[in-house]
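job 3f2a | input accepted
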Amino acid sequence: MSMPSIFLKINIKIILVIIILAVGAVGGFWLVQNQKSSLPGRLGSALITPVLADEIYPMFLCTCCGLPLDKKKICCEMAQERIDFIDSLARQGISKDEIILAYAKKYGANSFADKEKQKEFKEKLAAAAPENRPIISLSSESFDFGDVSQKNGVVSTLFEIKNEGKQDLIIDKLDSSCGCTSASVVFQGAEGPRFAMAGHGIESPSDWKAVIPPGQSGQLKIYYDPSVHADFRGYAIREIYIYSNDPIDFEKKVIVELNQVD
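job 3f2a | predicted structure (262 res):
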Protein backbone atom coordinates (compact mmCIF):
# COMPACT_ATOMS: atom_id res chain seq x y z
CA MET A 1 0.00 0.00 0.00
CA SER A 2 1.35 3.41 -0.91
CA MET A 3 2.18 5.98 1.76
CA PRO A 4 -0.50 8.47 0.59
CA SER A 5 -3.17 5.76 0.98
CA ILE A 6 -2.04 4.97 4.52
CA PHE A 7 -2.13 8.65 5.50
CA LEU A 8 -5.59 9.04 3.96
CA LYS A 9 -6.99 6.14 5.98
CA ILE A 10 -5.44 7.49 9.18
CA ASN A 11 -6.86 10.98 8.55
CA ILE A 12 -10.34 9.57 7.89
CA LYS A 13 -10.23 7.65 11.20
CA ILE A 14 -9.11 10.75 13.06
CA ILE A 15 -11.93 12.80 11.53
CA LEU A 16 -14.50 10.13 12.46
CA VAL A 17 -13.25 10.07 16.06
CA ILE A 18 -13.47 13.87 16.27
CA ILE A 19 -17.04 13.84 14.90
CA ILE A 20 -18.12 11.14 17.39
CA LEU A 21 -16.60 13.05 20.32
CA ALA A 22 -18.21 16.31 19.19
CA VAL A 23 -21.66 14.71 18.83
CA GLY A 24 -21.31 13.16 22.27
CA ALA A 25 -20.34 16.46 23.87
CA VAL A 26 -23.25 18.34 22.24
CA GLY A 27 -25.67 15.60 23.23
CA GLY A 28 -24.47 15.64 26.83
CA PHE A 29 -24.77 19.43 27.04
CA TRP A 30 -28.31 19.28 25.60
CA LEU A 31 -29.31 16.60 28.10
CA VAL A 32 -28.13 18.63 31.09
CA GLN A 33 -29.86 21.78 29.87
CA ASN A 34 -33.04 19.87 29.14
CA GLN A 35 -33.03 18.38 32.62
CA LYS A 36 -32.58 21.82 34.19
CA SER A 37 -35.52 23.31 32.31
CA SER A 38 -37.90 20.37 32.37
CA LEU A 39 -37.26 19.32 35.98
CA PRO A 40 -37.38 22.58 37.98
CA GLY A 41 -37.99 20.72 41.21
CA ARG A 42 -34.90 18.52 40.76
CA LEU A 43 -31.63 19.35 38.99
CA GLY A 44 -32.24 22.98 37.97
CA SER A 45 -33.92 24.26 41.13
CA ALA A 46 -31.71 22.15 43.38
CA LEU A 47 -28.74 24.16 42.16
CA ILE A 48 -30.13 27.70 42.01
CA THR A 49 -33.39 27.97 43.96
CA PRO A 50 -32.05 27.74 47.55
CA VAL A 51 -29.33 30.29 46.82
CA LEU A 52 -31.78 32.74 45.22
CA ALA A 53 -34.38 32.33 47.95
CA ASP A 54 -31.79 32.70 50.72
CA GLU A 55 -30.80 36.07 49.24
CA ILE A 56 -34.40 37.30 49.27
CA TYR A 57 -35.68 36.18 52.72
CA PRO A 58 -33.76 38.82 54.75
CA MET A 59 -34.85 41.62 52.40
CA PHE A 60 -38.31 41.56 54.01
CA LEU A 61 -39.61 41.90 57.57
CA CYS A 62 -41.96 39.58 59.41
CA THR A 63 -44.98 41.70 60.38
CA CYS A 64 -45.30 39.72 63.61
CA CYS A 65 -41.86 40.19 65.18
CA GLY A 66 -40.48 42.97 62.98
CA LEU A 67 -37.31 41.01 62.19
CA PRO A 68 -36.00 39.96 58.75
CA LEU A 69 -37.36 36.65 57.45
CA ASP A 70 -35.14 33.72 58.36
CA LYS A 71 -35.94 30.16 57.25
CA LYS A 72 -33.87 28.77 60.14
CA LYS A 73 -35.78 30.81 62.74
CA ILE A 74 -39.46 30.94 61.77
CA CYS A 75 -41.30 32.89 64.46
CA CYS A 76 -44.94 32.50 63.35
CA GLU A 77 -47.38 31.28 60.70
CA MET A 78 -47.18 34.61 58.84
CA ALA A 79 -43.40 34.26 58.48
CA GLN A 80 -43.81 30.67 57.26
CA GLU A 81 -46.40 31.77 54.69
CA ARG A 82 -44.09 34.48 53.33
CA ILE A 83 -41.09 32.15 53.16
CA ASP A 84 -43.19 29.52 51.36
CA PHE A 85 -44.31 32.18 48.88
CA ILE A 86 -40.70 33.16 48.10
CA ASP A 87 -39.78 29.48 47.69
CA SER A 88 -42.66 28.92 45.27
CA LEU A 89 -41.57 31.88 43.14
CA ALA A 90 -37.92 30.79 43.14
CA ARG A 91 -38.91 27.33 41.89
CA GLN A 92 -40.50 28.96 38.83
CA GLY A 93 -37.06 30.08 37.65
CA ILE A 94 -37.99 33.77 37.40
CA SER A 95 -35.51 36.56 38.08
CA LYS A 96 -34.72 38.08 41.46
CA ASP A 97 -36.39 41.37 40.50
CA GLU A 98 -39.55 39.51 39.46
CA ILE A 99 -39.67 37.67 42.80
CA ILE A 100 -39.22 40.93 44.71
CA LEU A 101 -41.99 42.61 42.71
CA ALA A 102 -44.41 39.71 43.22
CA TYR A 103 -43.67 39.65 46.96
CA ALA A 104 -44.07 43.41 47.36
CA LYS A 105 -47.39 43.38 45.49
CA LYS A 106 -48.72 40.58 47.69
CA TYR A 107 -47.41 41.70 51.07
CA GLY A 108 -46.65 45.37 50.51
CA ALA A 109 -43.69 47.52 49.58
CA ASN A 110 -43.48 48.71 53.19
CA SER A 111 -42.33 45.23 54.23
CA PHE A 112 -38.76 45.89 53.00
CA ALA A 113 -36.23 45.57 55.81
CA ASP A 114 -33.86 48.05 54.15
CA LYS A 115 -35.49 51.41 53.35
CA GLU A 116 -32.82 52.13 50.74
CA LYS A 117 -33.82 48.93 48.93
CA GLN A 118 -37.44 50.02 49.18
CA LYS A 119 -36.53 53.39 47.65
CA GLU A 120 -34.63 51.71 44.80
CA PHE A 121 -37.58 49.41 44.19
CA LYS A 122 -40.02 52.32 43.94
CA GLU A 123 -37.69 54.18 41.59
CA LYS A 124 -37.70 51.16 39.27
CA LEU A 125 -41.50 51.07 39.39
CA ALA A 126 -41.74 54.77 38.58
CA ALA A 127 -39.40 54.41 35.60
CA ALA A 128 -41.49 51.56 34.17
CA ALA A 129 -44.97 52.97 34.94
CA PRO A 130 -47.15 54.18 32.02
CA GLU A 131 -48.09 57.87 31.85
CA ASN A 132 -51.84 57.14 31.72
CA ARG A 133 -51.81 55.12 34.94
CA PRO A 134 -54.23 55.51 37.85
CA ILE A 135 -52.71 57.60 40.65
CA ILE A 136 -53.87 57.34 44.25
CA SER A 137 -53.69 60.54 46.28
CA LEU A 138 -54.63 61.10 49.94
CA SER A 139 -55.63 64.34 51.64
CA SER A 140 -53.28 63.36 54.46
CA GLU A 141 -51.25 60.34 55.47
CA SER A 142 -51.61 60.69 59.25
CA PHE A 143 -54.14 61.63 61.93
CA ASP A 144 -53.96 62.07 65.69
CA PHE A 145 -57.10 61.02 67.60
CA GLY A 146 -55.71 62.59 70.76
CA ASP A 147 -57.16 61.11 73.97
CA VAL A 148 -59.41 58.12 73.29
CA SER A 149 -61.56 57.18 76.26
CA GLN A 150 -62.13 53.54 77.03
CA LYS A 151 -65.59 54.49 78.33
CA ASN A 152 -66.66 56.32 75.16
CA GLY A 153 -65.92 53.43 72.82
CA VAL A 154 -65.11 53.44 69.08
CA VAL A 155 -63.79 56.57 67.37
CA SER A 156 -63.40 57.17 63.63
CA THR A 157 -61.98 59.63 61.10
CA LEU A 158 -62.07 60.19 57.34
CA PHE A 159 -59.35 60.71 54.72
CA GLU A 160 -60.09 61.81 51.15
CA ILE A 161 -58.89 59.41 48.44
CA LYS A 162 -58.60 60.98 44.99
CA ASN A 163 -57.72 59.44 41.65
CA GLU A 164 -55.33 61.91 40.02
CA GLY A 165 -54.51 59.58 37.13
CA LYS A 166 -56.02 58.87 33.71
CA GLN A 167 -57.45 55.39 34.32
CA ASP A 168 -59.89 53.98 36.88
CA LEU A 169 -58.37 53.54 40.32
CA ILE A 170 -59.36 50.12 41.65
CA ILE A 171 -59.01 49.51 45.39
CA ASP A 172 -59.48 45.83 46.19
CA LYS A 173 -58.06 45.40 49.68
CA LEU A 174 -57.38 47.19 52.96
CA ASP A 175 -55.34 46.00 55.92
CA SER A 176 -54.23 47.22 59.32
CA SER A 177 -51.41 46.58 61.75
CA CYS A 178 -53.73 45.59 64.62
CA GLY A 179 -57.18 44.11 65.21
CA CYS A 180 -58.18 47.24 67.14
CA THR A 181 -58.03 49.31 63.95
CA SER A 182 -60.24 48.72 60.90
CA ALA A 183 -61.01 50.64 57.73
CA SER A 184 -63.48 50.88 54.85
CA VAL A 185 -63.88 52.85 51.62
CA VAL A 186 -66.81 55.22 51.15
CA PHE A 187 -67.66 56.12 47.53
CA GLN A 188 -70.71 58.04 46.31
CA GLY A 189 -72.26 57.82 49.77
CA ALA A 190 -72.00 54.02 50.05
CA GLU A 191 -69.63 52.46 52.57
CA GLY A 192 -67.90 49.22 51.66
CA PRO A 193 -67.00 46.35 54.00
CA ARG A 194 -64.60 46.87 56.87
CA PHE A 195 -61.11 45.39 56.77
CA ALA A 196 -58.72 44.77 59.65
CA MET A 197 -55.60 42.77 60.40
CA ALA A 198 -56.23 39.25 59.12
CA GLY A 199 -57.28 36.75 61.77
CA HIS A 200 -58.12 39.36 64.40
CA GLY A 201 -61.92 39.50 64.58
CA ILE A 202 -62.97 41.08 61.28
CA GLU A 203 -63.00 38.73 58.30
CA SER A 204 -61.90 40.80 55.32
CA PRO A 205 -63.68 39.90 52.04
CA SER A 206 -61.70 38.71 49.03
CA ASP A 207 -64.21 39.52 46.27
CA TRP A 208 -64.72 43.26 46.89
CA LYS A 209 -63.46 46.31 45.05
CA ALA A 210 -64.11 50.04 44.82
CA VAL A 211 -63.67 51.76 41.45
CA ILE A 212 -62.88 55.50 41.47
CA PRO A 213 -62.83 57.11 37.98
CA PRO A 214 -60.18 59.70 37.01
CA GLY A 215 -60.66 63.03 38.78
CA GLN A 216 -63.15 61.66 41.30
CA SER A 217 -62.78 61.10 45.03
CA GLY A 218 -63.85 58.70 47.73
CA GLN A 219 -63.08 58.45 51.42
CA LEU A 220 -61.09 56.14 53.64
CA LYS A 221 -62.90 55.67 56.96
CA ILE A 222 -60.74 54.48 59.86
CA TYR A 223 -62.11 53.07 63.12
CA TYR A 224 -60.30 52.56 66.40
CA ASP A 225 -61.91 50.34 69.05
CA PRO A 226 -60.31 50.77 72.51
CA SER A 227 -62.17 47.75 73.89
CA VAL A 228 -59.98 45.38 71.83
CA HIS A 229 -57.14 46.16 74.27
CA ALA A 230 -59.29 46.98 77.30
CA ASP A 231 -56.39 47.02 79.78
CA PHE A 232 -54.10 49.14 77.64
CA ARG A 233 -53.40 52.75 78.59
CA GLY A 234 -51.05 55.17 76.90
CA TYR A 235 -49.74 56.16 73.49
CA ALA A 236 -50.30 53.97 70.43
CA ILE A 237 -49.65 54.21 66.72
CA ARG A 238 -51.47 52.10 64.12
CA GLU A 239 -51.00 51.66 60.37
CA ILE A 240 -53.62 51.15 57.65
CA TYR A 241 -52.72 49.94 54.16
CA ILE A 242 -54.66 50.64 50.95
CA TYR A 243 -54.03 48.24 48.05
CA SER A 244 -54.86 49.39 44.53
CA ASN A 245 -53.91 49.12 40.86
CA ASP A 246 -51.70 52.22 41.02
CA PRO A 247 -48.51 50.65 39.57
CA ILE A 248 -46.24 52.72 41.83
CA ASP A 249 -48.14 53.22 45.10
CA PHE A 250 -50.04 49.93 45.00
CA GLU A 251 -49.74 49.87 48.80
CA LYS A 252 -50.46 53.25 50.36
CA LYS A 253 -49.90 53.63 54.10
CA VAL A 254 -51.85 55.82 56.53
CA ILE A 255 -50.90 56.28 60.20
CA VAL A 256 -53.17 57.09 63.14
CA GLU A 257 -51.97 58.03 66.63
CA LEU A 258 -53.83 58.13 69.92
CA ASN A 259 -53.54 58.16 73.68
CA GLN A 260 -55.84 55.62 75.30
CA VAL A 261 -57.27 56.71 78.63
CA ASP A 262 -59.98 55.56 81.08
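job 3f2a | The helical segments are 3-38, 40-56, 77-90, 96-107, 115-128.
job 3f2a | closed
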